[in-house]
Design goal:
About 30% of the residues lie in helices and about 15% in strands. The protein is built from five helices and five strands. It has a three-stranded antiparallel sheet, with no helix packed on it. It has a two-stranded parallel sheet with strand order 1-5.
Length: about 140
Amino acid sequence: MNELNDLETAQVIQDMKKGQSNILVAVRLRPLWKKEEEDGEFNIVRILDEKLVILQDPHDFEPDEAKNELRKNRTRERRYAFDFAFNETVSTENVFKCTAHFLCEAVLDGYNSTVFAYGTTGAGKTFTMLGNNENPGIMF
């Protein structure tokens, strides 16, 4: 992560301490599995400014002659904003620093804190939370 993310994390912490915010929502993009790559699948998710997630319309990647004439000038692209959006190259340590590290101090100061992982099967929740021997998750 970069200095900008450190400043944004500090701002989120300050907002929480002031009572202006009491929830932080982050998303982490997992890399494609080998099987997905072998099957010719590709990633339609793009992350901008470490906050904005863009889900591109898969039909936008088709050659023009394969596109449906009725959808020619339409796209089903979707955009979602989060407090933090991490791409597939960001380490678990950096995810921890931005999302859960400051909660440890808050718990010791008597505040309640919860880290909740949500997503579909295979989305990477267990890896992010528990990790493995070489790359421990944020719970450790």
